[in-house]
Write a sequence for this structure.
């Protein structure tokens, strides 16, 4: 009877340790996510009212230039459609852009607090309907020049 109890305890401890190690690999903590929910950018824009005020992570084309910074699902079309204004809280540029006259994009993963308003009150000029205040950024490719 003591051996069975000991085996049950050992199996339970093994499961807990495996779970914690998986969390450590995925999120950098033993206790799971750091408060961010992974969301596809197209879903974030489409269901903006659902994600308003939440901490999210998403992937898209991060674009900087001419005093603007935003993330889009793709680099074609209007800069205001399928995009969100980015507020940089990480203390450095997303893309090393030495010129204010050249606009560059890079595929990137951003995490931060998402806000949405129907009136388009975000950005410079204030035409964006969505805003993401960045807490984390990682580049997933090489920057390239774009025309906006």
């Amino acid at each position: 009877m003591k051996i069975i109890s000991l085996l049950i305890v050992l199996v339970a401890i093994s499961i807990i340790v495996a779970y914690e190690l998986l969390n450590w690999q995925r999120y950098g903590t033993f206790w799971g996510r750091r408060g961010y929910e992974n969301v596809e950018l197209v879903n974030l824009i489409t269901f903006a009212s659902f994600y308003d005020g939440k901490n999210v992570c998403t992937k898209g084309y991060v674009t900087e230039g001419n005093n603007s910074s935003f993330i889009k699902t793709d680099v074609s079309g209007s800069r205001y459609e399928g995009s969100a204004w980015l507020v940089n809280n990480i203390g450095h540029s997303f893309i090393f852009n030495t010129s204010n006259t050249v606009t560059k994009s890079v595929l990137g993963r951003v995490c931060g607090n998402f806000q949405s308003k129907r009136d388009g009150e975000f950005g410079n000029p204030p035409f964006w309907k969505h805003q993401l205040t960045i807490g984390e950024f990682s580049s997933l490719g090489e920057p390239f020049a774009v025309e906006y």
